[in-house]
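Recall that a protein's primary structure is simply its ordered list of amino acids. Everything else, from secondary elements to tertiary packing, is in principle encoded there. The following example makes that idea concrete.
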Amino acid sequence: KVVQGRFLCDVDEQTRAQACVLSVELANRLFAGHNPLAEFVEVRGFESSQVMRVVGILQERSDVEKAPQSNNIMGQAIGANVYIPLSTFKALYGTKDIDRSVGALKVEIVDLSEIRVEFGSPEEVIEAIPRLRDALNKRRGGRNAEEDYEIRVPLNELNAMREQKARDTRVLMFIACISLLVGGIGIMNIMLATVTERTREIGIRRALGASKINIIFQFLIETLMLCLIGGAIGVIGGWGFAEAREFLTEDTTIVKAWSIAAAFGLSVMVGLIFGLYPAQRAANLDPIEALRHT
């Protein structure tokens, strides 16, 4: 309760009065042995400070919630010790996000000068504008509500973001194609070396009745297994990198199911393309010459 002077009133709010109310603890700390009423204190904001006149003293913090107030005025606590008119607070601190409070108890948000909405991709922005407008109008009285607000869409930034995204995609596609080409050539060389090492085995299988198709399938399956193992390692590594990046930067990375399926699909395609030549070479070996190979 107010033990000296008065609490803030509607006149203080309307005139942006340079008036404040102190808690007993702070008043004793600042004006020990003196009457703090009508004295001045300096209240600092983000970019400026304001000298304010003490008009009242409140009892301890546990009783602050019982302080008198009206529907249009609310003392704004700074460190739960100093109370000033809300209009004065907005002039001193700005109006982007102000909570109407009684002591340490948050009651409601009373003023917003800006609402910022973030989207996952530029394409979602244009589609969301009508929904945002409907939501704001609904909160402000329905479709016939006065639109005393403005929705700003940074189109230049969106276009620059699209261009940057397209450039990044082209660079990543180029790197991916080079990586697939190098990896495919490496797999083909490994399988050609395997065919040379297993020439006698191939000759024995042909002598026992295995057809060329059987040999081709054998080596293609082996190539596909190598590619699928490599694809699995790549998926696990990519997922781990995404999780580490999200942990370190707090940027959300979504690994979609289709991207995992695409990774394994590319692995199968690379295996078929670069494994076909070694398989055909193994199938075309002369069985007699293959049996003589040592």
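The chain is about 55% helix and 15% strand. Residues 123-153 form one domain.
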